[in-house]
Design brief:
The chain is α+β, with helices and mostly antiparallel strands. Helices cover about 40% and strands about 20% of the residues. It has 11 helices and 10 strands. The strands form 2 sheets. A 6-stranded antiparallel sheet has the order 1-2-9-4-7-10. About 35% of the residues are buried.
Length: about 280
């Protein structure tokens, strides 16, 4: 199948935006009587626009349900999986790294943690992005042009945000004190920095990163589950299960029943295009 007929497509960002975004995506959901259900993983903020929409779609995030999801939506950073119901259509979007949020938009992103709002609340110029998409411009090109135009409108973002992102992705980073020392800030200063730029406390970010690293390994190769948990720093399966309920709202086994085909396709397509399945 070509890109036009593939239900999930990811595009890697070009060099100019690689520091700021995780990548671009297009999800095309089938039209199913009674609605189609699937899931998004916990993660950083994203912008998603709905095209060719048959009916409104909804997302349950933690104990809140967002219904309808705005056609032009800003998904804040999440500490919980999102469970969606759609009646068919196409969603195109871009994932924002914390440094990207700070440079392209800025402000206290904790206001949007575990929330979905209209893109207009974050950026009044989102209408130009929709116009480009509805005119037929490929999603990754439309997003690239729109975001690149924003790059130099704000003062340079705090370089410590990128350094902190790298520390979080390093499996050797296991304690808050290690991050604070590496950035030469107090633990209290680190907490203020992560809440403002990442949306959550350092402790929650470390737990989410470890859990997603373990979940990726478990879903990729279930037979190596015990080995993966040990390598990612879990004491035992009950320890992992507690984090599973925190970040997925259920056990991994139940999540596998709840996730639909698009989530499974996205897992493989994202790894192929962006180098990481989650």
């Amino acid at each position: 199948m070509g890109e036009a007929t593939t239900p999930i497509v990811y595009w890697a960002p070009g060099d100019e935006l690689a520091r700021y975004v995780t990548g671009f995506h297009r999800f095309s959901a089938p039209r199913v009587p009674g609605g189609y259900r699937d899931a998004f993983f916990p993660g950083w903020a994203s912008i998603r626009l709905t095209l060719e929409q048959e009916r409104d779609w909804s997302v349950r995030l933690g104990n809140r349900t967002f219904e309808p999801v705005p056609r032009d939506a800003f998904f804040g950073p999440s500490s919980s999986a999102s469970y969606l119901t759609t009646y068919g259509g196409t969603v195109v979007g871009v994932g924002l790294l914390p440094f990207g949020w700070a440079q392209l938009f800025g402000g206290d992103i904790a206001r949007y943690s575990n929330r979905i709002v209209s893109l207009a609340e974050v950026d009044a110029g989102g209408s130009t992005l929709r116009e480009a998409l509805e005119a037929g411009e490929p999603p990754h090109e439309a997003f690239t042009r729109w975001l690149t135009a924003r790059l130099h409108r704000r003062p340079p973002a705090d370089p410590r945000i990128e350094r902190l992102s790298a520390l979080l992705e390093d499996p050797a980073t296991t304690r808050i004190e290690m991050m604070a020392e590496a950035l030469d800030v107090t633990p209290r200063g680190l907490a203020a920095m992560t809440r403002f730029n990442f949306g959550f406390t350092p402790k929650l970010l470390l737990r989410r990163t470890r859990f997603m690293r373990a979940l990726s390994g478990v879903l990729t190769d279930p037979a190596r589950g015990s080995e993966v948990l040990d390598a990612t720093g879990y004491w035992d399966r009950s320890h992992f299960l507690r984090d599973s309920h925190l970040f997925l709202g259920c056990s991994v086994r139940d999540f596998q029943r709840r996730r639909g085909p698009l989530n499974q396709l996205a897992f493989a397509a994202r790894e192929e295009a962006l180098g990481s399945p989650v």
